[in-house]
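Lab meeting notes turned into a lecture example. A postdoc, R.K., suggested we walk through two folding results consecutively so the class can see how the record format repeats. The first protein's sequence and structure tokens come next.
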Amino acid sequence: MINDKNIDGGKGFDWGLTSEAYSRYRDIYPVELYKRLKELGVAADGSSWLDIGTGTGILPQNLYNPNAGITGVDISGEQIRFARETAEKSGMNINYFVSPAESTGLPDESFDAITAAQCFLYFDREKIKSEIKRLLKPRGRFIKIYMDWSLDGGIASKSVELVKKYNESWNGGEKVYADVFDDLFDGRKTEEFFSDIPFTRESWHGRMCACRGTLASMDRESFEKWSEAHIKMLREYPEAFTVKHKLYITYFTL
């Protein structure tokens, strides 16, 4: 359980409770993102790459290269369990282990690239800065990824409103995280682009189940009420649709 006064007013949340839904429904990053990460050197032949806050291992599995050394770390044992199971089923040699990102215990100057997707706001600001710089090789690169749905009055807006009806503390979806901690690293560069992500009613409901405001923090009764209301709301929409997202890639080279 994580409690942070700067997130959801300090209401606790546990990503481990979302692991099954996260594994099934949060694999939604667009091809353009993976292409750009490869251009930035992530998972290149002969390189070493660390994904911090890896969750169920979505980034390493989608960028898997058997000729690269790949490690994923997350504080949630349940998330790592799903990451390991998925990788093993696919025959991927990825080293997943449970640890706070701020104190991995890994050797100095171990990685050519370190990534952090949708997780940087959960880290201790100064500790993670030191750990990233300690772990990167000379000329190594750190890359932070953030993807935010567009609140333009469509299905994402209505879904967010419904979550907040049952969980008033949740401040997700308020576009407050895109630039979090960017000032930590001198010489950083940020790129932005939009992508229309495809969903079905089922996969969008699953995506919302895998957010911090629902399974991770609602009590069982509230979650069931929200889930029923959300499924009912989705019947007003086509079976398949897209949701516009904005992606931010911030990176710096040591």
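The second example is placed directly after the first for contrast:
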Amino acid sequence: MIKCAIFDLDGTLVNTLSDLGRATAYVLKAFGTEPKWTDDDYRAFVGNGAKKLLERAFEHKLTDEQLNKALDIFKAKYNEILIDNAYVYDGIKDSLDKLKDKGIKLAVVTNKPHFSALKMVESLFGKDYFDIIIGAEENVAKKPDPFTTNLVLKKLGLLPQEALFFGDSDVDIYTAKNAGLKSVGCSWGFRSRECLLFASPSLIIDSAYSIAKLF
């Protein structure tokens, strides 16, 4: 019996692409680089955390010291504009409300910095809507490492077979596999259906309204 639904955040629950792109462009300009990336570029850059996003946007040309400085600038700017354009995908709230009515535990596991993730989720869904929210923190392994997913299971006292992992990217699918969970690819997010298929999820759904039908 499935007792918990674990969700990625960006591209799965919430469309955050516009503000991620704006914050990245701000950092590029701060370093004297004229932004040239499109939404499609940013869609390919995200998924592995803010540091990787910046590495890709700067085409891996920054020193470690510069990258850390860029990351600090990015975090400050992104937290300032965090929910300016972000929105919950159609069907998400409807499905999650149905899961809550069934007593299913809800968790968020994301590579977004923890403070930003917490602020975003609480702003868009309300405080305590999710049972657990785990974002990225310094010196803590990020997805696709299973550490944060395993932490959710441990806190809820659940076995891997009692949870489903929902995500829009190959990173999420590999995270689920590494933690021993079945994975559900969400095709409405930042990665293509082909990318999801290549990662071999347990199944793929094309509408957020389908989430509740899996329980």
